[in-house]
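Help! Submission page says 'invalid entity' but I think these are all valid:
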Amino acid sequence: MKAPAFAYAKPRSLAEVCALLDERGETARVLAGGQSLVPMLNLRVAAADLLVDISGIESLRGVSVTADRLCVGALTSHREVEQSAEVARHAPLLAQAAPHIAHVAIRNSGTFGGSIALADPAAEWPACCLALDATILTISKAGKRSIPARAFFKGLFSTDLRPGELITGVEIPLTPGHRSVFLELSRRRGDYAIVGVAAMAKVQGGTLQDVRLAFLGGGDRPLLAVHAMKAAEGKPPLADLGPALAADLSPMADLDTSARTKLHLANVLARRALAALAG
Amino acid sequence: MDHSLPLTLTVNGTRVTSRVEPRTHLIDFLRDTAGLTGSHIGCEHGVCGACTVRVDGLIVRGCLTLAVQCEGKTVDTIEGLSDSGELAELQQAFHERNALQCGYCTPGMLVAALDLVKSEPDASRERIREHLSGNYCRCTGYQAIVDAIETVLAMRRTTAKAAGARP
């Protein structure tokens, strides 16, 4: 299908973007890479009177590192994250997750910030942001905000973003002592995840410390599995996190996979992830 | 309501100027306005890969890209990549390995395959499969397609080795 008609603007500055979004309110949509928005417009499950193309704002692009954090600009493409030496060194979880995002042709266009703003519960970056304890940086005509990722995702395609607000980047605290693992199950390479896990921990004498398990496909939003994390803390890798995960996750059934199966698969992935972290 | 905008871009080395509606996908602009019907339209929501083209050197989905997003950019389609000879080895290998049946997916397959051949000369069969995972062949001729790409990679490695061995 083709998208219905809309107007298009490509502002040259962040101030212009904020002014346009403020003025046009909910009738305007931000266009970054368009890899979710354009198909949604094509299928007519999303609508807009105006697309505000932010791809000309160069300050939103790229990866940078300071003494204690990595910053990923909102316009950085999935492929740039995948191939970034700085990401591989300072936040390997992101490099591990990137190949699971759709296909190369889509990763070339789709953006880090776009994926977080959309908040698809099966998406990779939001779950990674929870595991990494990242902070989402935003701007609007009212000013800038820093929102902890763990308070950002509110529900199905729903976030803490306010009308007229734009994600500018994501800050990730450096965790040099942690190991990370990203695992995902999908029916075919590049398909939406049935369920997936972004896992991190420090390993000391065969036990796991500061265990972090964030799931995609585990509910209506990316979810931090706090009960499972507590159960796994300070121990060698556990073989069964089933009861804890049942308290943490509420997967939604889809055409192929029941909620119960997804919960079972989440437990399988958690077990594999913990074993991989320790090994 | 008319939202149309002026658009200038370079398609297969030629500067093209036109007016487009923002809702126009790059693939429709290329096929209907530029008359380049070699790139195909399959699913129109980014799943099948039949519309794969190159924008500023990177492969993208023609159905998930708006023409207006390509202002000032360089677009390469199957026609340009074919005429320039860049695809010659792959086309020959696809022919020899019978890697096309109905041919509908072939332009997208070739553009995606070229991207891999250029960026990963040592790609394994598994990596070829991964790289092409976003391109569907509804005749299901995947084995022959992977064979053809594997052949080109092997041929290129042999050529590179021979060139390196020369005194």
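Support: the input was valid. A stray whitespace character was the problem, and the output above is from the cleaned input. The domain at 58-173 of chain A is CATH 3.30.465.10 (Uridine Diphospho-n-acetylenolpyruvylglucosamine Reductase; domain 3).
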